[in-house]
Amino acid sequence: MDTLLLLLPQVLFDGLLLGFVYAMIALGYTMVYGVLELINFAHSEIFMIGSVVGIEVFRSLTGYVPNPYILLVVAVILGGLISGLTAVGVERLAYRPLRKRGTKNRLVPLITAFGVSFVLQDLVKLLEGLWHNEFFLSMKNVGELEQSVTLFGIFIQYKSFILIGVSLVMLGALTWLVGRTRLGLAIRSVAQDPSTAGLMGIDPEKIISRTFLIGGALGGVAGVLFALQYTTVSPYVGFLPGIKAFTAAVLGGIGNIPGAVVGGLVLGEIETLAGTFLPVLTGGAFGTEYKDVLAFLILILLLLFRPQGLLGQIVKEKV
Amino acid sequence: MNRFVGAVPATARLAVTVLLLAAMGGFLALGWGAAAVLAAYATLFVLAAFPPDPRWKLAALAVLTLEATLGLASKIGGDLLFIALVGVLVLLLRLPKVAVWLKVLLGAAVLLLGIPIAGFANTFLFELGIQIGIYSAMALGLNVVVGMAGLLDMGYAAFFAIGAYTWAIFGSSQVQHFLTTWVPLNGNFVYLFMGLAILATAATGILIGLPALRLRGDYLAIVTLGLGEVVRILANNLDHPLNLTNGPQGITGITKPPIEGFQALLAALGIPRSASTDYQLFFYLLVLVIIGFIVLVNVNLARSKFGRAWVAIREDEIAAKAMGIPMVKTKLLAFATGAAFSGAMGVLFAAQRGFVSPETFTLTASITILGMVVLGGMGSVPGVILGAAALTILNLDLLKGFSEVLNTMRQDGTVLLGFPMSQLPSQVDPAKYERLVFGIILILMMIFRPEGLIPERRGSREEEA
Hints:
The complex is a heterodimer.
Chain A: H1 2-36, H2 43-61, H3 68-101, H4 107-132, E1 137-138, E2 148-151, E3 154-157, H5 158-180, H6 182-192, H7 194-199, H8 204-230, E4 232-233, H9 239-252, H10 257-281, H11 291-305
Antiparallel strand pairs in A: 1-4, 2-3
Chain B: H1 3-7, H2 10-27, H3 34-49, H4 54-73, H5 78-93, H6 100-121, H7 123-148, H8 156-170, H9 189-213, H10 217-237, E1 251-252, H11 260-269, H12 275-303, H13 305-315, H14 317-322, H15 327-353, E2 355-356, H16 363-376, H17 381-412, E3 415-416, E4 419-420, H18 434-448, H19 457-464
Antiparallel strand pairs in B: 1-2, 3-4
């Protein structure tokens, strides 16, 4: 039991790292849900694209640019940009035609979201297959970023600091953008009522597109940081973090931006704690694999007892 | 007058004609039996280019069936003629102004003579027929959930897995890993286990549906997606502490139902027999019977009080609620019904294959079944069967065939458009990109034809009124 307690600070720190990744993905879900009331399931693939871009930058540029910090900046910018633009493209090609038709059936955009998700997975797989003839990619050694310090008995790599730092900056920037800028005001007004927002001189289509760009860029940056921290990536890497980030968004109250962050952090901690302590406490009968089952159980229990999430409010359905 | 042909635009008809003419050219060079194939294509060509009066069309379809069967029996033009047979069935369902008994007669000829004869000539076609049957049955089950009630179930393969594992565990020596004194059950219990699987999967469906169905539909999609993943994780890891599922290796040596009586019947009828085709024919006929039953249930459900309630919920949840339909109860019933179909087919799948492993029950399997329902037409029974046939053929036959063609090109060093095919990376293998194909189908169908290839009748009747 003593060894378990000694492990605790390290486990909590690892949970924090995972939690920030979930939080950043969850923001993309929550923002799109806010403006369109759509679970954009393809968002997990936007995240995956970011992680693949991150690995490709380090793999192909390490020879030319020896400084890992510069590489990291390049990877974060490229990852955010490519993911953001993919999200905008997806919105343009797959979701907008549905809105133009004016289908009231909620099933239609949801099925499209799943379709987009599978197409993106296999497209990345195809591209990687053509390029490297493999699609399970692993990170290059990133030199200085692999170095570590031990603080209060916690083993911390430099890249973990970077993950937390970049996440905090992105979350701060998003809060500022949504709360304090004209674009943020427009996003909030479209989320509240798109047709009235249109009457006030806001182009809802443009705002929806911007929302996808911002959410996608956040997901892409999360992907780059994920690749840096957890080092292996494949076209299917987005699926589980995607479901969990959605769970995190629901946990915090979907449509609620601080809620997504809280939900992500809580879920990251629970999952890491379970992954470490479950095998020990059950004498090895239930292994670490069951940590994925746990996130799902939380989602079910949450829907039973507090469907509006931790920070959300009960919303009456519009007729 | 003629709804099906009328729905095909002139450009599509021209494209079909050109395609068929090209195919005919290819078959001119072949030996005996090729004449039948040639005639079959000619019939198809006439049907596609000059839509005749419905009565003549029935005759043309009958001729086409005969020709396709003859061609298949002499092992020529296999896959395309098989597709033609499936096409005959679909066209039959869309023929107006023709006596029902004529349609039934021709349909029975295709199902009971055409496809078995083709199967004896080429056992792969038997396997294809059985798989189409199993997937059709599952797609019809999902049709109740997605098509009628409008609830998006993304983890449908989970129920399939539960059914398959129920029989796999008790119908093989796997059971002795945790119940040492138990003997594996004999094959007659398959039918009992189909019933048990129906109960087990319906109960699971209610357990999962209860929390998710109280909320808006979108949550159900994610919860079922999670369920699919959980069932796969459980199947993969429940080999310890107690070996229930044998983990990633899967369970082998699953008992098949006994067919002595059936074999005696075959011998009495003088049908050619061999150890493998006996079982294939048996399972093929069994699947047909089950599909017949499921179609009956589907059609009756659609016209029942519950079916109408489901459609009402699908069309407008709030209005349905205002009309006094109990939401959670009605939705749960749809969800559990769909799950039960899948569970029963799981038992049959395990018994037919003799082997199950977690690999079969991935997300891709759930998507495949959803794709069948969406492609064919949500809520439409003939549409869903067409969707199941089309995607099964695409998956098991066409994509694999395409892969083989690419592989031959790789080995022969063919140069395509200036690109040496031997340089093509081995990961570029069409058989492994079924998700891409299904994804594109889902997206395009939602944009251009959300009601599916054969739309549900109910909707069109309302629009006409």
